[in-house]
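User: Hello, beginner here. Can you help me understand these amino acid letters and fold codes? It all follows right here:
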Amino acid sequence: MGRVVVTGLGAITPLGIGVDAFWEGLTAGRSGVRRIEHWDASALPVRIAGEVPGFVAKEFMDPKAALRMDRFAQFGVAASRQALEQARLHITDENRERIAVVMNTGGGGIPTIEDNVLTMHARGSKPVSPFLIPMFAPNMASSQVSITFGTRGPSITGVAACAAGVQAFVDAVHLLERGDADVVITGGTEAGITPVAVAGLANMRALSRRNDDPAAASRPFDLGRDGFVFGEGSAVMILETEEHADRRGAAALAYCHGGAYTSDAFHITAPDPTGTGAARAMSMAVTRAGLHPSDIDYVAAHATSTPIGDIAETKAIKIAFGDHAAKLALSANKSMLGHLLGGAGAVSSLACVLAMRDGLVPPTINLTDPDPQCDLDYVPNVARRLPVRAAIANGFGFGGQNACAVFTKA
């Protein structure tokens, strides 16, 4: 089949609408974490999040169709439109059956479920939306992308908690390798910042409680970290076989080599503190890409800003890369975006492609007092000029799901 190339990018993130807003904010070290504005969080112990500002669904899709989509699906459609436009991919009767969609998520339409439960509790069953089920179903981001753009190849959804966004790229490459499609619209999307979801994560003690200083709340690898910040958003790429891209004259932004998954088989929320499962995912991914650990220059770390998780990932990277671990540049985009759950790994993958394109590695902000157990090069606080030949994106999810995707410079 040959290689898989990236030809288009799209992003909806707490740093703004579009890839340019995302990358400019990320490399500038700007935080997108703020006080929650979309609903009243004053009664909750956590009142901050990485909400997407200024998103208007009707700018990307038919207004009537948007009303029948949950916000996570709207994000997926919007980011897909951006990616298709950059790739200059026109979907026609001649190619639509060879274009697939893989749009992963961690939870699906959580706001739709919560709103309708409250409606039924307050007013009975009659006002419950007839679109409740097709709005909250996790597969609806993939389905709505397919419906909106008229693709008729496979439409797939993986629900893998915080590993979902990375797994999307692994599954997309598998589709292309099997010959099931020539092009895949792929990524991750999430929009689950609701009162119940925030309360649940807060009661789990998973979230930072730095309500008075939102921009400093997410601080991966810092000794003062106290949990992650809930975020929302989407990142999408157009992947296609190199032969198909060459035929239509599309420019390759990067190569995507797929990757690998593993499981910790350890705990429903905590990572294996030894890091062995995550290390195995990284090692398998690099080997499957035909690379040596020393070929990797940059790691877009999972790095949630949890006390246990950041140490476990540091251990995993040392296991997977050995002596080369000390030479890697790592960074945590969650320090600026918060944790996008099912969208997180897709955003990290996007950061890999852009870092290779520009020779610029984004920073890990708020890293002012490094944890002695986190002793690698996390590119603290200021972006760094660095030629990046190859990069990996990590995604580790509740339930012990680990995923790693590999990208190389075009």
About this structure: Residues 205 and 380 are 26 Å apart (CA to CA).
